[in-house]
Amino acid sequence: MTDAQAITMPRAGDVPAGVGPVGAIVMAWASGYQALVRAVVFGDDVRR
Question: Is residue 19 within 8 Å of 27, Cβ to Cβ?
């Protein structure tokens, strides 16, 4: 993911109108999953 994509990615609590609670949960899970994958692939320390 590039920095530009990170900036445009919706944050948790910044949910577009019409997505609803399920969409919000999915987006939050997806962002957490991306962080986990980045940690595994790039060796980032997620336990801060």
Answer: yes
